[in-house]
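To: structure subgroup
Subject: Chain for Friday's discussion

All,

I'm putting the inputs and outputs inline so they're searchable in the archive.
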Amino acid sequence: MDLEKRPVGQPVEPAVRQTPAQQAPEGCLVVAIRIPVRIVVLVLVVPVRIVWDALVVAGRFLVDTVLRPVGRALLWIGRAVFVWPWVALWRYVVVPVGKGLGRLGYWLLVAPTVWLYRYVLTPVGHGIAWLYRWTLVPFGRAIAWLVRYLVVVPAAWVYQYVLTPVGHAIACVARGAVWLVRMFFTGIWLGIYWTARVLFVLPALALWRWVLTPVGRVLAVVGREIRDALGHAWRVAGHISLAVGWFLATLFRWIFVEPTRWVYRTVLTPVGHLVRDVVWKPAAAAARSVGRTTRQALAAARESVRQARASVRWALLGKPAEPRPVARREPRAAETRTLGSSTTALTKD
């Protein structure tokens, strides 16, 4: 549906169908190779994909149930055996000892060295600098002046007016000799180059262009088709492996899981309820009543023993004196407060 308005009088162009990227036309050789290769590769890849999926499931189960807990345990043991002792050694032994050695080294080496540099080497260096400035510098300048006008100036004159012309002449003769040698070796190289080109390069180029290139193109087509067939077969084998897995899971469910669930639901659960209601609850009630009776009997026996002991003690030692009641200093709730009575800490009776 075209939602844009066109100007009046503008011709309507025919709709051009948008298609994906144009594929290159395939020859009969490609089509003839593709179908047999895909069939053979599919037959070979399906068992491999099924075994691969089974190994993947087993590996995941092994990793989740065995390797990961064992790895965590080994990691904790490794930390406890290797990391924590070294951390404790570093924190509580090496660091304090290092600090102590650093402080000792400072007071034994750094501080004496600083004192020696400040109060011995610095004054000596200042004295040497003063000697260099006022003694060696004037002497060096005088020697430099003598060397300049006795050695450098005559040597420069000899170089400019004697050695330079002689060197230019020698350079011209050397350039001519080099040109002659270069032309000689250039002629030899051109002869060897064209001989090697005619004998080796041109036959090799013809072999590459008319033999190896067509064979390589055919092999490239075969290899591409084998690669595409392997990918297609691997995907199809994955769907087949998934279907086989679902089939085996459904078969296992209907053979083992559903019968077990049915037995548990229709047989074991009613039997368990019957045993609970007929055997377990009456037995528990009887046990509770026996325990209650036993506890009452034991309590009555303990009370009888306590009374017998009290009777024997009274018969031998006499009845103990009853404690006298102590008058409470706080006013009772029933008493009424008057002007002559007080309950404060300072005016209590």
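Points worth raising on Friday:
The first helix runs from residue 28 to 317.
The helical segments are 28-317.

D.
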